Amino acid sequence: MAFDAVEDLKMALIGVLNHNISLVAPLKKKIMDYKEQRSEYYRTLVRTNLAKIKETTKDMDEATKKKVSDMEALFASGDAKTMIGIVADLSLPKPQRPITHQSQHNLNVPHEIRDDIFFDLSEIDKCMNANAYRSAMILCARVLETALHRKYYDFTGKDLLETSPGIGLGNIISKMRESGIEIDPALTQQVHLINNVRIFSVHKKQNVFQPSREQAQATFLFTIDILKKLF
Q1: pTM exceeding 0.90
Q2: What confidence tens digit (pLDDT) does each residue in 133-143 have?
Q3: pLDDT reported for residue 198
């Protein structure tokens, strides 16, 4: 799952087209329900990777730089379909990366959140490679939030991101129990563990939390295990 910027952009644009997302952000901010949160997530992915490609190609030939310039204009106008045609024809040197452990996991997650989950797993891998272990653990919690929100929605038809924005992992578990969703007690403990790690990672403490690679790796493995149990 460790993609270079070109592959990341291509996958992001595929997600935009599959989910019928507008690349042009609304002028007025909407309540961040699940759909709008997902839309903003994909817009950010496209914007970020387009910027990476522009930086990579700044000293390359004029034809390549024109393709990037054209994509910037298309992004501003919201034309994802034409953008993906240019990306498919873009050839850049790929960074050397080791084969990632995530490719070894067969995850059967719902297609509605598959892109979101896999992009986050790819980001976790990048954090691990960069020794950014705290960031990796925070992303693990984000993966679980996406998965648990979807599980709750599939069972109840209710979007907690719309009715209870900002709800934490622990409260999502409580809501699932109240709705009669059966949850393995071991899974609940794993979720609470990762949630506590995220809290220590995000909130300022007297002693800075500096997780080790082993702790981050264990959190990632717990996350993969939970995804497999949920779906």
Answers
A1: no
A2: 888 888 888 89
A3: 67
CATH topology of domain 101-230: Four Helix Bundle (Hemerythrin (Met), subunit A) (1.20.120)
The pair of structure tokens assigned to 129 is 């490679």
For the range 47-52, what are the long-range contacts, defined as Cβ-Cβ under 8 Å and sequence gap of 24 or more?
47/75, 49/5, 49/6, 49/8, 49/9, 49/12, 50/9, 50/75, 52/5, 52/8
Percent of all residues in the chain with a pLDDT value above 70, rounded to a whole number = 84
For the segment 74-100, what is each residue's pLDDT rounded down to a tens digit? Answer: 999 999 999 999 988 887 765 533 334
How far from the centroid of its chain's Cα atoms is residue 41's Cα?
8
Count other C-beta atoms under 10 Å from residue 179's C-beta. Answer: 11
Quote the CA–CA distance of 89 and 53 in Å, as a whole number: 13
Q: Which two tokens stand for residue 20?
A: 């019928």
pLDDT value of position 214 = 84
The residue ranges of every structural domain in the chain are: 5-88, 101-230
Instruction: State the number of CA atoms in the 13 A half-sphere of 44 facing the CB.
Output: 9
199-226 per-residue burial string, b: 16 or more CB within 10 A, e: under 16: bebeeeeeeebebeeebbebbbebbbeb
What is residue 97's predicted lDDT score, i.e. its pLDDT? Answer: 38
Long-range contacts for 63-72 (Cβ within 8 Å, ≥24 apart)? 64/90, 64/92
Q: How far is CA 16 from the centre of its chain?
A: 14
